[in-house]
Amino acid sequence: xxxxxxxxxxxxxxxxxxxxxxVDTLPRPTRTRVMTVSNQKGGVGKTTTTVNLAAGLARNGAxxxxxxxxxxxxxxxxxxxxxxxETASVYDVVVGEAAIADVIQKSPEFDQLFCVPxxxxxxxxxxxxxxxxxxxxxxxxxxxxxxxxxxxxxxxFDYVFIDCPPSLGLxxxxxxxxxxxxLIPIQCEYYxxxxxxxxxxxxxxxxxxxxxxxxxxxxLLTMYDGRTNLSQQVAAxxxxxxxxxxxxxxxPRSVRISEAPGYGQTVISYDTNSPGSLSYLEAAAEIAxxxxxx
Length: 294
Hints:
Elements lengths: L5 H17 L10 E5 L8 H14 L4 E5 L5 H5 L11 H5 L5 H4 L1 E2 L6 E4 L8 H6 L7 H12 L9 E5 L6 H9 L2 E7 L8 H14 L5 E10 L4 H13 L4 E7 L2 H5 L7 H4 L4 H16 L4
Parallel strand pairs: 1-5, 1-6, 2-4, 2-5, 6-7, 7-8
Antiparallel strand pairs: 3-4
Helix pairs in contact: 1-13, 2-13, 7-8
């Protein structure tokens, strides 16, 4: 093959990236990092980002928990865990009195990857939470108790990712209160920054009144198409506004990423060597190397 052709250059670059990931040893955080993945705008790759970052870290030896707080249950589907209506789920934790240990499932993707599934019952949780005592603290109370019970060196979780619904209701507030970090996926398309200022204001309110340690630590650019001026301009705009938070890695538009959930898998296990999988593995590595904010 002619090494000067675009295809040959692309294959060479993919090989280089694969080799770099093979020799990269990810540091284990000194304490559990709890990250809420949120964007009130739908269709930005929020759930896709949650499950693939979790799978990428688990593939590299980290012990990772995904809490599916979206009534649609897409994260549960992608991680291949049971989430039929009768399944014990996060609903029983935030509305009932169940412990996370009673509802957690191991994902078939990786031995170190676990999930607290969502079921259709979660759709009514916003209304049911209104009348409950400490309604904004329900998830944090349960998560703190669970992490305390698994704090041994062999059983400690390194990362907890909370997948939120695309709204700013009580479920999302519970996720913000339970976390120390917020990860915001932003698509490289029109209106990328629309609504972001409102999201940031809400995060500031949560920080002020309910969770003083909450911070926006990470922004990930998704659905990037380097062939278009639009994607390049959006990426430049976001980096200008958030120079410290934006990861260097960008997630490309990828058929493989879109296909994977249909097989009950993340793209990490569905097609490990695809550009989309490599990008999520690189983003996971970047998050690990950056560490938690001070």
